[in-house]
Design goal:
Radius of gyration: 22 Å
Number of strands: 11
CATH class of the largest domain: Alpha Beta
Strand order of the largest sheet: 4-7-10-3-11
Mean pLDDT: 88
Low-confidence stretches: 266-271
Shape: elongated
Distance between the termini: 56 Å
Structural class: alpha/beta
Strand content: 15-25%
Helix content: 40-55%
Order of helices and strands: EEHEHEHEEHEHEEEHEHHHHHHH
Length: 284
């Protein structure tokens, strides 16, 4: 069976069994937690499943200042009248949509308490301030995501909260399938896509040495689009893959060597010359 899916001009390449697990959770009205490194395809999976299930996706980007009122809604003065305005979570429940809370670990614990009644047998949202109780329709689904490898000890999800969800662990695609994504998304030749993936794979394997967030599939797609627009492969890798990873000159030089070896097979002397020119330009 093919792992490729195409919906409304959006390409999705499945990694494992995440599509079937997501569908099964949806059929049983269960909330889902997606975990995995940044840019491995969590958001794209949500978009894909919204198409598959014919459901609207309402996305909430979580952050430190997110309050429960930001989620459920608040009273506001409009035209001299005080009226209730639904928040995105409330709209998702009422519309029977998929509510996607991206990087949920960034939200404050007290803000997440409003989700408890939606993630157990009640499937109900209580709007205390508005005096309203909303039972979620069968099509409503709560999906959260976060990167377990990139968070501080102060931003840990409580085990009691995590256990409310079906947890689907995601990771980067195998090299062959990740290259197919680049071809489909950016229209580059397969040979170019394979070199970019090889570059990323080599850098990811060096993560334990350099201690940085590994390059994402999203970054590879961006680099591939730059190449499709006429950029040099190494230049595209520099600005789209390497530059966002680190500001440390020594680390950047090491990453540049890896990238050049994968993309151009360049000699060490060429890389050294490029690094010297970049450093000289920075001093000027």
């Amino acid at each position: 069976m093919s792992n490729n899916f195409q919906h409304a001009n959006k390409f999705y390449q499945s990694n494992n069994n995440e599509v079937s697990l997501f569908r099964q959770a949806a059929e049983q009205h269960l909330p889902v937690m997606l975990t995995g490194p940044t840019g491995c395809g969590k958001t794209r999976l949500i978009e894909h499943m919204g198409e598959v299930l014919s459901r609207k996706v309402i996305t909430i980007s979580c952050h430190d200042d997110l309050t429960s009122a930001d989620l459920v809604g608040r009273f506001m003065v409009t035209g001299g009248d005080v009226v209730w305005n639904d928040g995105p979570l409330t709209r998702a429940v009422k519309e029977g949509a998929i509510c996607y809370m991206d990087e949920v670990v960034e939200a404050r614990h007290d803000s997440l308490a409003v989700l408890h009644s939606l993630t157990d047998h009640r499937r109900t949202l209580y709007l205390d301030r508005a005096g309203e109780v909303i039972e979620a329709p069968a099509t409503f689904m709560l999906v959260c995501s976060y990167n377990p490898a990139y968070r501080s000890s102060l931003k840990e999800l409580k085990p009691s909260f995590r256990q409310r969800f079906v947890t689907i662990a995601m990771n980067f695609l195998p090299p062959e399938r990740e290259a197919e994504v680049l071809v489909a998304e950016a229209g580059v030749d397969m040979s170019v896509a394979k070199r970019l993936v090889q570059c990323a794979t080599s850098i990811r394997s060096a993560d334990d040495v350099f201690h940085f967030e590994p390059p994402s599939t999203r970054a590879l797609v961006t680099a591939a689009k730059m190449i499709a627009a006429g950029a040099d492969e190494l230049e595209a890798a520099e600005v789209c893959i390497l530059a966002p990873l680190s500001n440390d000159g020594a680390v950047t030089d090491g990453l540049s060597e890896i990238a050049a070896a994968c993309l151009l097979g360049a000699s060490r002397s060429e890389i050294t010359d490029n690094n010297k020119q970049r450093q000289s330009g920075a001093k000027r």
